[in-house]
Specification:
The protein is of the alpha+beta class. Strand 1 and strand 2 form a beta hairpin. The chain binds zinc ion (3 copies).
Length: 376
């Protein structure tokens, strides 16, 4: 690791002098139709989004409908955890749903142009009773409970309405990530269609499986883990130390791993995946989710330490619960994508569909994994 880091740093210094930096197009190994331009030269660094309003870190806000004591000011409550006593997590209906819970047929076709009406469910999860608390500040036990709450609500929604094909859970944290409410929250959007991103991942990973008889996500985890550095003694030539932690590994738990994707779209993007093949988030056990919570908390601590006050989106990607996808159980691998927002997309990105990342994923991985955290 030390050797590898030094080499890397020298490369970085040299490239900074020349001000060319890394310039390469990387193909997303999971969805090859998606690519990213890694361009670290200063000229490529986009202007920062107009200074995003600083994150609201207050513990309690008298007029916030999501703060404890204001329960009567939210849209109708769906559930709360725990059911009795002070709540830790609440699920409420979305005041401004992007989808409506009507009873119309979900398909409308006009010639070649297809539309699906905005049928579905849109709910808000109040992640914590403390107004401005960040994920890395929540306890592991709370995070574990939060992900168990995601799980049980997904199950309920799938069971309640067979027309729903996908339940997407995501979080926007901070104004730069599009959070309209300052109080920490996640959102659930259940739709009669599978989101394109998930569909692409499911299909491409299935193609890969058919060719290689192996899950591509597992392959990436293996690759991340098998990078080896051997340190030899200069005099005797004996092996002093072997290090087998891959350069893309940010954090590793008993059941989960956080990795820096090789073709990261966002400068500080990180994915968390089960170490052993698992396609379905809904089937994760409480024990697994507890380890997941630990890996997530530590990953977010690293992120906070490197970029400070990260504003981000995270998305939970899991196998769609539809018989049509039963044969993807071996090829699809659930994961959480964490996408910190440090710049606004440029016209080039929007027009080309090519993401531009100005921090090399290798450098970002070194910075993130070098953060020294306290053992809990
Ligand atoms: Zn609040
Ligand atoms: Zn897998
Ligand atoms: Zn994904």
């Amino acid at each position: 690791m030390l050797l590898a880091q030094n080499t890397k740093q020298t490369e970085t210094n040299m490239s900074e002098q020349e001000d060319i930096g890394t310039r390469e197009i990387r193909i997303n190994p999971i969805v090859p139709t998606e690519s990213v331009l890694i361009a670290t030269a200063r000229s490529m660094r986009p202007q920062k989004a107009e200074d995003a309003a600083p994150r609201d870190t207050r513990k309690h806000v008298e007029r916030c409908p999501f703060c404890r004591g204001n329960e009567d000011k939210t849209p109708p409550e769906i559930t709360r955890v725990p059911e009795n006593g002070d709540w830790a997590i609440r699920i409420v209906e979305n005041l401004y749903p992007v989808l409506g819970d009507d009873r119309q047929s979900p398909n409308m076709i006009f010639g070649l142009q297809q539309a699906i009406n905005g049928y579905g469910r849109h709910e808000v999860i109040v992640d914590h009773s403390q107004h401005g608390i960040a994920i890395h500040e929540m306890s592991q036990a709370h995070l574990s409970m939060l992900f168990q709450t995601y799980q049980s609500r997904m199950k309920e929604l799938y069971n309640a309405d067979k027309r729903l094909k996908y339940v997407l859970i995501f979080k926007n944290f901070g104004p730069a990530a599009g959070a309209s409410m300052a109080h920490t929250h996640s959102q659930i959007i259940a739709t009669p269609v599978i989101p394109q991103n998930v569909q692409d991942e499911v299909e491409h990973s299935k193609n890969y499986y058919e060719k290689n008889h192996h899950c591509i996500f597992c392959t990436l985890v293996d690759e991340a883990l098998t990078y080896e550095a051997t340190i030899y003694d200069r005099d005797s030539g004996k092996i002093v130390r072997k290090i087998d932690v891959g350069q893309y590994v940010i954090e590793r738990g008993e059941h989960f791993i956080a990795i820096k994707p090789f073709a990261s779209r966002y400068e500080w993007e990180i994915h968390i995946l089960p170490l052993v093949h698992k396609s379905d988030f809904i089937k994760a056990t409480p024990e697994e989710l507890d380890d997941f919570a630990r890996v997530l908390k530590r990953t977010m601590q690293r992120l906070d330490s490197v970029i400070g006050g990260a504003q981000y989106n995270y998305f939970l990607h899991t196998i769609p619960l539809d018989a049509q996808y039963d044969d993807c159980q071996n090829s699809y691998h659930w994961h959480l994508e964490i996408c910190p927002r440090t710049s606004i997309p440029s016209g080039f990105e929007l027009g080309s569909g090519l993401f531009v990342n100005t921090v090399s994923p290798e450098d970002a991985a070194i910075q993130l994994s070098n953060v020294v955290l306290d053992e809990e």
